[in-house]
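Progress note, sequence design subtask.
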């Protein structure tokens, strides 16, 4: 697949432009409702499908099917990612109007990290073809482990990353709007929103370790791997607000995702030296597994409505008052002498965490 430099630049420029539009559209903190999330989800899916149609038209059916296979894999695995985000936001009691900002930067970080992973994976595969056996074995093991642990969920309180963050980064006990950092009494401090962002990024890196090898099982083309990932990830924020309160209904989806990983692991192992399974068959198998798992899930839970995760009785963090926010010093630069003196007289916040 011969991809000219201008097409790479056009895709990257388009992604940056779409992120900018999304950030501008949600520049003010507000609760994103189901209707707004559905509209944005439809927009992002339409963009992903339109790009796949372009690949199909410009480069042929084989590459078009490879793109769609990768897109379906990433989009399906993203539902599990949404489930984890819901747990994190619930544990931290993040106000719904601040969640989009965390997810925006989380997705931005995910695009960067996945780009690095894809570049590294492409180099490894090109240099050492036998590494596909390792990727295949990893996918098989991950699928098996996912089935065994299908009823286990992330516990943010036990996160080593979170413990390290709290230990080394001075953190306030309150959300200060959409700010990730504040300065108080001359000290630069993180807000709980930054801790949430760090945990979201780490969990996405963990998910990428599964999804990137899975897409390499259906296509060797770095351009298709990256674009399938990118266009699937761009719609993750809208998907979260659309599905977060419905996750309890997808009871069989994790089994379906595990079977997809096992299938692509088998496909990758066979294609090294034995037999190449046509992309048409792979795409049909993947969509069938996901479709059946979703259908059986919704059928088994019919009649159940939207249900948010149970928030903690005593939230670990509070929301800062307007007076506290107004008294903050500029994050970058020096506060005036009068403001610094006033802050010193007030004394440090008793709820700070170090």
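Output:
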């Amino acid at each position: 697949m011969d991809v000219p430099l201008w097409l790479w630049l056009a895709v990257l420029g388009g992604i940056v432009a779409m992120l900018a539009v999304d950030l501008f559209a949600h520049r003010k903190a507000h609760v994103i409702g189901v209707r707004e999330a559905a509209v944005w989800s439809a927009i992002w899916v339409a963009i992903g499908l339109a790009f796949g149609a372009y690949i199909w038209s410009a480069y042929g059916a084989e590459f078009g099917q490879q793109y769609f296979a990768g897109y379906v894999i990433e989009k399906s695995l993203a539902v599990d990612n949404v489930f984890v985000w819901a747990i994190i936001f619930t544990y931290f009691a993040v106000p719904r109007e601040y969640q989009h900002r965390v997810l925006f930067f989380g997705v931005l970080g995910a695009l960067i990290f996945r780009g690095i992973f894809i570049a590294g994976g492409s180099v490894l595969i090109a240099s050492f073809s036998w590494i596909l056996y390792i990727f295949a074995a990893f996918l098989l093991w991950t699928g098996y482990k996912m089935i065994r642990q299908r009823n286990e969920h992330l516990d943010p309180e036990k996160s080593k990353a979170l413990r390290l963050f709290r230990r080394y980064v001075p953190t306030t006990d309150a959300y200060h709007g959409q700010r990730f950092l504040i300065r108080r009494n001359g000290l630069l401090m993180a807000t709980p929103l930054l801790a949430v962002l760090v945990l979201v990024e780490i969990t996405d890196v963990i998910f990428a370790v599964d999804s990137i090898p899975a897409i390499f099982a259906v296509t060797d083309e770095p351009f298709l791997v990256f674009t399938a990932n990118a266009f699937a990830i761009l719609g993750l924020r809208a998907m979260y607000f659309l599905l977060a309160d419905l996750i309890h209904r997808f009871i069989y989806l994790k089994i379906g995702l595990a079977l997809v990983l096992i299938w692509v692991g088998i496909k990758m192992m066979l294609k090294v030296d034995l037999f190449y399974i046509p992309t048409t068959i792979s795409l049909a198998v993947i969509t069938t597994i996901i479709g059946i798992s979703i259908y059986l899930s919704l059928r088994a839970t019919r009649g159940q409505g939207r249900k948010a995760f149970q928030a903690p009785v005593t939230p670990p963090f509070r929301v800062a008052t307007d007076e506290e926010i107004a008294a903050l010093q500029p994050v970058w630069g020096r506060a005036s002498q009068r403001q610094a003196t006033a802050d010193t007289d007030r004394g440090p916040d008793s709820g700070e965490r170090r």
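The CA atoms of residues 129 and 289 lie 28 Å apart. Work on this subtask will continue into the next period as scheduled.
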